[in-house]
Amino acid sequence: MGPGWGQSTELGRWAELVNSISTLEPVSRCRQLSELYLRKNCIPSLAELFYLKGLPCLRVLWLAENPCCGACPHLYRMTVLRNLPHLQKLDNQVQRLPHVPPAPQEARCQFPEPNNILTAVLLLLRELDSEGLEAVHQRVVSRLQALQKQELQEAME
Questions:
Q1: What domains, with CATH codes, occur in the chain?
Q2: Which chain regions cross the lipid bilayer (predicted)?
C-alpha cells in the first residue's frame, strides 16, 4: 500500500495504482475526496462500495482491473453506479445519464459470476425501508416456489 494510505482526510484526489490495496475502508474518512484512482489493485468485492457511500464529493472513480469487477462488465458498472449515483466518471467513462436505468434483458451477461450478483443484491438491500424489504421478500418467496415447482417437474420427467 502507498505511504499515505488512510492517513490523510483532507485529500481531494487519491491515486494508488498497481498496489496491493484490498479494502476501501481507509478512504471512508476522506470526506473531501472527489477523485479516486485504484486501478489494478486487489479490491475483492463490490461490498467495499459501502465505504464510498459517505463521500459526498466523490465524482470520479477508477476500479478497473480489480477482482471485484468480475466477469460481467455491465453488471459491475450498474452495481457501482446504482450504489454511487453521484459519480460522473467510472473507469474513465463519463456517466451521461442523471440516473442509472434498469438493465435490459439483452445487456445481461450469459454467465455472470454468482458472487458478484449476490453482492450487488445485498448492497441494494441496505437501501430499502421495511416496505421495500417486504416487496423483495414476497418476490423471493414467489421465485423460490417457482424454482421448486420446476425442479419437481424435471424430477418427474
A1: 13-126 (3.80.10.10)
A2: none
pLDDT of 12 reads 64
* Spatial separation of the C-alpha atoms in residues 97 and 150, rounded to whole Å: 39
Over residues 103-126, the pLDDT tens digits come to: 443 344 444 445 666 777 777 777
Residue 62: its H or E element: strand 60-62
Query: Contact 1/26 with Cβ under 8 angstroms?
Result: no
Cβ burial 61-71 (10 Å sphere, 16+ → b, else e): bbbbebebbbe
pLDDT for 96 equals 60
Q: Does residue 47 surpass a pLDDT of 50?
A: yes
- For cell 435490459, name the residue: 104
